[in-house]
Design a protein that fits this description.
heterodimer; A: mainly beta; six-stranded mixed beta sheet; B: 113 residues; seven-stranded mixed beta sheet; four-stranded antiparallel beta sheet
């Protein structure tokens, strides 16, 4: 069974500042890891994913995340926040045996001008 | 770009009534999912569906729930006798064969009064 913990339900950053969203997972088998973003009144949109290979993965809108097996982490970063990054972000895990997603509780990002 | 659609966007129903939530997955996708998010809680997996049968279901998905693909395009979630605790946002997702990525719809907000 898999589970995901997202540290911090709310993050507030200044425009242009670093965005760092933390995600730790537990999984009994090698995980597949995902970050989804949800803008108001919209569905969940995939930002990026890790399945195999390079542990630093780049996604859309300038986001990237690094899979660290030793730390069981998959933190999401963006060097410079933009006002349009204000949204809710979800970390999720699945495994190679089934594809159902287990989600974290989500982190709401607000960007200050 | 193809997208998953869901109707209605908001459904209000009285306790004990039946509701049907509708989803139109992306046309060449073969795997379908329902998730729900109770306000303030995590997104939770309900059920996965492939080849006209349930692949996996969570403990939430009891006898009150059913899914169906009545034609070549729709994928429905039925709740036979709604309870107050069924109030949540329900997300449909679909996935094509050979991909790990699930595409999510915008959700249906179900309010049971």
């Amino acid at each position: 069974a898999q589970s995901v913990t997202q540290l911090g339900s709310h993050v507030s950053v200044s425009e242009g500042a670093l965005v760092l969203l933390r995600c730790n997972y537990s999984s009994s088998v090698p995980p597949y890891l995902f970050w989804y973003v949800q803008y108001p009144n919209q569905g969940l949109q995939l930002l990026l994913k890790y399945t195999t290979g390079a542990t630093l993965v780049k996604g859309i809108n300038g986001f990237e995340a690094e899979f660290k097996k030793s730390e069981t982490s998959f933190h999401l970063t963006k060097p410079s926040a933009h006002m349009s990054d204000a949204a809710e972000y979800f970390c999720a895990v699945s495994d190679q045996n089934d594809y159902k997603l287990s989600f974290g509780a989500g982190t709401t990002v607000t960007v200050r001008a | 770009e193809p997208e998953v659609t869901q109707t209605p966007s908001h459904q209000v129903t009285q306790m004990g009534q039946e509701v049907i939530l509708r989803c139109v997955p992306i046309s060449n996708h073969l795997y379908f999912y329902w998730y729900r998010q109770i306000l303030g809680q995590k997104v939770e997996f309900l059920v996965s569906f492939y080849n006209n049968e349930i692949s996996e279901k969570s403990e939430i998905f009891d006898d009150q729930f059913s899914v169906e693909r009545p034609d070549g395009s729709n994928f429905t979630l039925k709740i036979r006798s709604t309870k107050l605790e069924d109030s949540a946002m329900y997300f449909c997702a679909s996935r094509r064969d050979g991909s790990y990525e699930q595409y999510f719809g915008p959700g249906t907000r179900l309010t049971v009064t």
